[in-house]
Design a protein that fits this description.
Layout lengths: L9 E3 H6 L1 H11 L3 E5 L2 E6 L2 H13 L14 H10 L5 E3 H10 L11 H12 L1 E5 L9 E9 L8 E11 L1
Parallel strand pairs: 1-2
Antiparallel strand pairs: 2-3, 4-7, 5-6, 6-7
Amino acid sequence: MELKKLDVPTSSITEVKKSPMDVFNQARVAGTGVYIFNREKIAGVMLTKEQYENLLHELERRPEPEPEIPIAEELEGLAMILHQTLVDGATISAKNLDERMVALGFITKKTGFGGVIDMMNELNESGKIVYQLRKKNNHKIILAEVIGEQDSQSQLFDKLLIKKVYLREL
């Protein structure tokens, strides 16, 4: 059986014990981390201080993804319809959003005069508009969170850009 050769620099625990600075120099010259083996198994990776700080900086620059919220199997159909009705990246008026959500069984957000204004205020303050499903699922409250922002390109104040839609149980 032939051992697979790694395309990155390697060293052993013995070499690290003898001269850790040689391993750091090896990482600096190669421009990458050095895999450290202990009895033919990778025990870790050694990086220079600069390489480590660059990795941390790169991680900080990445936007944090929205967590996927697990939902009950019974709600998967509703989630699929919701994602087809409210497409990520689409622009929609607050009135149209509310009408679509009501058609799917959610409680309206338009409470009397100024309902659209209240919806846009909620969006601007929290980054989302939260809807509650009329009927409970196994005695749990079901919420739909429409994540988005006010559409700055639109002439109308009630247009919003949908970024993501989530269902979750309380």
